[in-house]
Design brief:
Layout lengths: L1 H32 L3 H4 L14 H9 L2 H32 L5 H12 L7 H10 L6 H25 L3 H9 L4 H12 L1 H16 L3 H6 L8 H4 L14 H32 L5
Helix pairs in contact: 1-13, 3-13, 4-7, 4-10, 5-7, 7-10, 8-9, 10-13
Membrane topology: Multi-pass membrane protein
Family: Belongs to the binding-protein-dependent transport system permease family. MalFG subfamily.
GO cellular component, one term: plasma membrane
Length: 279
Amino acid sequence: MQAIRLSTFALYAVFILAAGIFLFPLFSVVSLSMKTADEVFAWPPALLPESLNFATYRYVLQETLVGRMLWNSAQMTFFSVIGAIVISAPAAYAFSRFQFRMHKPLLLLLLVYQMISTLVVAIPLYRYFESLNLLDSHLGVILVYITVEIPFTIWLLKGFFDSIPQSIDEAATLDGANRFQILTRILLPLAKPGLAAAVIFNAIAAWSQFIVPYLLLSKPEILPISIGILNFAPGQSEGEVTIPYLAAASILALLPAVLVLVVLQRFIVQALTGGAVKG
């Protein structure tokens, strides 16, 4: 009994230590966002601000383009996730239910494509979009986001469709349903946890994208928040202490992603245990 208690205590100690390692940087940024310039440069540095100071958040939201940048990120994330789901769901259904020529090589090709870094294609991508007149356009960025998200979404949804018995399709066919109706009215509702997981992963990936918008966008009013917070980096504004503003903008940029994760996180668990990880 004593050995079990010691092992339980050690397990909780490891959990607390791991939580502390991950949460301390976040706590430091929150603390920094509430400090004044004098507190930022005080020595020895204090872990906590002297008071809860939200002036930096008011300044960032009212006097800068952060609000606009958050809206830009929300639009690009929303439309890229919708686009990726609309294109990937029929493709995942086809890979799951049909055996056609080049079935496995195409699946492998999607996996290989997923491994290609955006940095590798940065210069060709820029020149191609320049020729299409899609630079400084949200549409161009959204199209790239969708292209990047499609392979992962197909693999995720295919695994989930594989876990749904094909006898359900056969029963629906006997009742007169066509393929489109089977997909939209039967399989997608049954694959709701997988869809939610795809939405979460793609939304977080799109929200945090840096290379693509940094490459294709240059006008401040159309930048997403992942690029916009660079304007608060030390050295961007000569003679001005921007560290608290940078910390406040970073926290504001983090909140929507955390909110999506908290609201839909139970679907991730269902997806991982319900078939989304099956090949």
